């Protein structure tokens, strides 16, 4: 069986995207700087360093865990800010529980608030998608009626039921939109409370 060229290319791209570093990057790596970048991005340390080791072993380069970890600790405070927590949460990104104890509460407060906004937006999107699907069902049924179907009464009842479903979903959307507005006001207050004080 021949595998299409496009599938081979996609597989190569997927495998390449799993590599944290290229051979060239491994050869000139400043492990302290790489660690600092990884810390500033909030990566789980064990997984991230193991990925570097795997990538660079193939290139014949030994990763320096001591330097990397020193850099990682320097980078973490840039990640573990309340405002970054808000940003990470609102993008729906996972948090790897990497923040030091003294920075965890502020980051977590922002993260949880941003995550809540992301969840509400996802729920709204899901409801909108369901409504679009039901509206399409109604259009399909209306086409059947226009075509002169024998089962007109059953289809009309189904259309009525679907219109009621849409009304219920729109009520749910209204509640979610109200929740979302409140959460976004809380986010604005949160940003204001952590905004840098101008001198």
How does this model look, in words?
- The structure is a single chain.
- The chain is mainly α and 199 residues long.
- The protein has two domains: 21-79, no CATH class; 104-194.
- 77% of the residues lie in helices and 0% in strands.
- It is built from eight helices and no strands.
- The chain has helices spanning 5-18, 23-27, 31-40, 45-58, 65-79, 82-90, 104-146, 152-194.
- Helix 3 packs parallel to helix 5.
- Mean pLDDT is 88; it is low at 1-17.
The secondary structure category is: mainly alpha
By DSSP (H or I, 4+ residues per run), the number of helices equals: 8
Mean residue pLDDT: 88
- Biggest β-sheet, characterized? none
**Helical content (DSSP H or I, runs of 4+):** over 70%
Uncertain regions: pLDDT < 50 for 5+ in a row?
A: 1-17
The total strand number stands at: 0
End-to-end CA span: 70 Å
Shape: elongated
